[in-house]
Amino acid sequence: MRSAGSTQTQLSINGSRLMQRIATLAEIGAIDGGGCNRLALTDADRDGRNLVREWMIELGLQIAVDAVGNIIGTWQVGSGAAVMTGSHIDTVRTGGKYDGNYGVLAGLEVIQTLQDAGVTPSRPLAVGIFTDEEGARFAPDMLGSLVYAGGMSTEAAHDVIGIDGARLGDELERIGYLGSVPCPGIAPHAFVELHIEQGPLLEVNGVRIGAVTGVQGISWQEVTIHGQSNHAGTTPMHLRRDPAYAAAALTVFVRELSARYGGHQVCTVGKIDLHPNLTNVVPSRAVLTLDVRNTDEAILQRAEGEIADYCDVLAQREQVSITRRSLARFEPVVFDERVVAMVERLAIARGNSVQRMPSGAGHDAQMIARMCPTAMIFVPSHKGLSHNVAEHTDAVDLIAGADVLLDTMRELSETTFA
Ligand code: GLV
Ligand code: MN
Ligand code: MN
User: Measured in angstroms, how far is the CA atom of residue 361 from the centroid of ligand 1?
Assistant: First the structure.
């Protein structure tokens, strides 16, 4: 790796402009408590896209919308493949202002800072807004960046059916983001994503910047349990075939599995639907989701195996049928040591405290890592809260992170990877 970056004059991003853009974007889909609801490919997501695309156009970026609606804004300077940053602006239904949005808007801020200073990098700089990172409406998560990186076909992505029965391809067309640029996309020279940590570690440790070493593996499953619907008052307990009970037992099982495994093992039941969902009816059906993650692929596989075995035992014992469907499965990703070390060094050079850490959340960077040297920068999340309207990061930390992104993108644009 050769780099000419260390001789550059230091610049700083315009913090109030960044904070203003974050606040303006957060007005779209705003919900009580200061959060956002912009589920992927809804009208609110479209309005958010339109706003950020306008900002990209104001910066003179060349806009490409691809076949899964990823928006790539490129500052066409220098030559060669672009140094790319980016993230997502879709949110979960009860999301905060910063998850994803911060990384996209900090990317615009980096470009505007360089433009204002009359500094032209040796390579193009690009900002990506990746479609459906959250996976909250259309599974899998990180869908747009997965397709961009060639990990899923455009056709398969278009055919994904959302939690509301909508087809992804139809929704892209409906909101005007079924673009013509083919996927997979062009491999960047390097990729670096700036994101809030979404967990407690930086705050607890009193550290401002995380140099992210990788992302843990993710396994999402939908579990459907069929039993026998019956009268809640007349059906003796020992004769019930109760999917609600089986769903609860499975929820307890994965919680206890996490406690047994310890370490990085996490398991979540985030969604349970009962049918017919009435007070005095033993349900006929339960559909629930499992989100199981670990930094170690072998342990993640062991957890999946135990869950499968438990479902068989439970089905037998409770006289219900249990079927499982994979919604997302991504192995742990290790980021490029050269980019991780660069983030760490540049953060320290700005006087920040820094720690290396894996990411507990999924990110678009884990998909783009298949294409080019990649890493991420984290800043603290207040009380570790995210996927919550109360998600908060202090402006001083958001601005510090954006400055590290600025320095990293500048240095990457002057770096040749062997
Ligand atoms: C994506 O945001 C995830 O980690 O669930
Ligand atoms: Mn995110
Ligand atoms: Mn998220």
Answer: 5
Ligand 1 center from residue 262 Cα (angstroms): 21
- Please tell me whether residues 347 and 270 are part of one structural domain: no
Atom of ligand 1 nearest to the CA of 387: 2
141 touches ligand 1 (CB under 6 Å):
yes
Residue that has been written with the tokens 């240095």 in this structure? 411
At 159, give phi and psi (nearest 5°): -85, 0
In a shared domain, residues 324 and 192: no
Domain that holds residue 371: 5-215+332-413
CA of 154 from ligand 1 middle (Å) equals: 21
Global pTM value: 0.96
DSSP line for 173-234? HHTT---SB-SS-PPPSEEEEEEE--SSHHHHHT-SEEEEEEE-EEEEEEEEEE---EETTT
Give the residue carrying structure tokens 């990746």.
130
pLDDT in tens, 355-378: 999 999 999 999 999 999 999 999
What tokens does 247 get?
């769903």
> How many percent of the chain have pLDDT more than 70?
99
